Amino acid sequence: MGITVQNITGNTAMVIWPKTASCADSFYSVMYHPNWNSMLSSYSRKSFQKEERVPASRSSFVVENLTPLTTYIVCVTCQSANPSSDQCRVFNTLERDPASASNTKKELALGIWLTSSVLLLIIAAILLYGCLHLLCRRRHERLQGRNGTSKQDHGKAWTQSTAYASEELGRQSQLMQDTEEKHPGGIQLATIIENPSACKEPVTRTSKSQERVPTTGQRSAI
């Protein structure tokens, strides 16, 4: 068939063949396999690693994803027929292309950068959530502390007011007792003067001897 292999690189190769009349209404089968020594025993289609179908209107095909520095055998047949020796060619791939190596490095660097960016975003989100949770917790504790302090202050104020009222009541009662001890009749006379209507009838029934109240007692009561 006059098969030729051109533009060989470390990963690709172009296979060219002449058109045949028997494949005008069908397709071409391009089969290739590495380590061609294992193919010397037979040229069965099952022995090839890969097979590509190409339309009959084309007479070339670019084989891709090859391994650098590897010997390949490629065969072209019509309608997936088993190839013969005159339908195959052997070629060797070159070293890895600098351009493809740089592209691989760029893709690797891009993948690492994307992975690290995603991890940093996740870590930042976790830290932000932790900080917000800690701030809310501290604020809640402060509010609880203020409420407890205000309750304690209110209780102290109520206790102080109660104690003050008790002390004041004790002072008044003590003052009244001291006054009664000093002037026992003066307090009764003062009570009668404050409520004359309540003691009006008993006063009229008293004798003349009882109506005479010492002048000193009256003055002191008034």
UniProtKB/TrEMBL annotation:
<keyword id="KW-0472">Membrane</keyword>
<feature type="domain" description="Fibronectin type-III">
    <location>
        <begin position="1"/>
        <end position="96"/>
    </location>
</feature>
<dbReference type="InterPro" id="IPR013783">
    <property type="entry name" value="Ig-like_fold"/>
</dbReference>
<dbReference type="Pfam" id="PF00041">
    <property type="entry name" value="fn3"/>
</dbReference>
<feature type="region of interest" description="Disordered">
    <location>
        <begin position="194"/>
        <end position="222"/>
    </location>
</feature>
<keyword id="KW-0812">Transmembrane</keyword>
<feature type="transmembrane region" description="Helical">
    <location>
        <begin position="110"/>
        <end position="136"/>
    </location>
</feature>
<dbReference type="InterPro" id="IPR003961">
    <property type="entry name" value="FN3_dom"/>
</dbReference>
<dbReference type="InterPro" id="IPR036116">
    <property type="entry name" value="FN3_sf"/>
</dbReference>
<protein>
    <submittedName>
        <fullName>Fibronectin type III domain-containing protein 9</fullName>
    </submittedName>
</protein>
<feature type="compositionally biased region" description="Polar residues">
    <location>
        <begin position="204"/>
        <end position="222"/>
    </location>
</feature>
<keyword id="KW-1133">Transmembrane helix</keyword>
